[in-house]
Amino acid sequence: xxxxxxxxxxxxxxxxxxxxxxxxxxxxxxxxxxxxxxxxxxxxxxxxxxxxxxxxxxxxxxxxxxxxxxxxxxxxxxxxxxxxxxxxxxxxxxxxxxxxxxxxxxxxxxxxxxxxxxxxxxxxxxxxxxxxxxxxxxxxxxxxxxxxxxxxxxxxxx
Length: 158
Ligand SMILES: [Zn+2]
Known about the structure:
This protein is α+β, with helices and mostly antiparallel strands. Helices cover 30% and strands 32% of the residues. The protein has a single domain (2-156), classed as CATH 3.30.1330.50. Helix 4 (110-121) links the parallel strand 5 (91-100) and strand 6. The N and C termini lie close together (6 Å). It binds zinc ion (ZN).
């Protein structure tokens, strides 16, 4: 049986925060604001996996009212959600994702993101796609006020 899931996330860019995307620290003058480390790509992937499992969403599982998740490394949340995938006897068939950021350039960091995420998700690198786009200077993302991410995950259970 196959199950597909869709995930989306957006975080505001702000001064005084580290920019962490796909588990990788990115050199930039601004970072993403959030209760956790605000790793927009990991959050989209988590929501896609939860969607495929029909198990609600990241905000319900890890509420921002809970001090436990304050500034938490999102790779820890990803490990918890991947454990749920395995508990339900699913394997990840593949993941496709987009990071949409006007600045900085994501491309140089993608190999490291793939390395970090594939290691957590026990995935071959050719099963995880991370694409980077700008928003052509339009809207909040294009005006460097926010970064967003989308992910689709296909799970298989046999
Ligand atoms: Zn988020």
